[in-house]
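If you are new to this repository, start here. Below is one unmodified record pulled from the training split, so you can see the exact layout before writing a loader.
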Amino acid sequence: MTEMEELTRRIIGCAFEVSNELGIGFVESIYENSLRVLLEQQGMRVIQQASLPVQFRGVPVGQFFIDLLVEDTVILELKAAKAIVPEHEMQILNYLRASMRPVGLLLNFGTPKLEIRRYENRFDKNIHRDKGDERD
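And here is the target side for that same chain:
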């Protein structure tokens, strides 16, 4: 198991703990705050609402805010929706492209069973990946 796989496994374990403890019915920010607390309690570095710039042809054109950025590597996009829809998937894919982070997790706390989708950044072959993570 690579370092990245181990990190995402730990994050997903924490997400399940939050989901099991809180259940469904809260707004997204409650799950976001709770997951941040648990990740930090587990010794992970977390930035909440991390601001990252978006560039077009090398020129800054705006910024976006990642729900949680873990270990400056994994983007977490949280939802409290009835289901994950294509717009949610496009959002995290755009975040991966703009931030050049290697992995993103889309976590939906709005269903009886936590929905999890993992995405790898395939937009730039030069981003950092674990040595065992060269699957191109």
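Two things worth knowing about this chain: Helices lie at 3-22, 28-41, 86-99. Confidence is low (pLDDT under 50) at residues 127-136.
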